[in-house]
Amino acid sequence: MKSFLKMIVSLLAVFGALVGALAIFDKVQNKNRIKGDYLECDTEETE
């Protein structure tokens, strides 16, 4: 039973590390992303 719990905890640790690494990668990748509202443009909107 202890080996099963160790395996579960190990898998959760690996999953947590993977999610953290993906979050850091996304933060670095989208560093120059436009934040806030949409860009304003001079074109007229048609309905």
Structure description:
- This protein has 47 residues and is mainly alpha-helical.
- The protein is built from 1 helix and no strands.
- It has one helix at residues 2-29.
- The longest helix is centred in the N-terminal third of the chain and has 28 residues, at 2-29.
- It is rod-shaped, with a radius of gyration of 22 Å.
- 0% of the residues are buried.
- The model has no long low-confidence stretch (mean pLDDT 84).
Descriptors for this entry?
mainly alpha
The Rg value, from CA coordinates, equals 22 Å
Stretches where pLDDT is under 50 for at least 5 consecutive residues are none
Number of strands: 0
Given the C-alpha coordinates, what overall shape results? rod-shaped
Distance between the termini: 65 Å
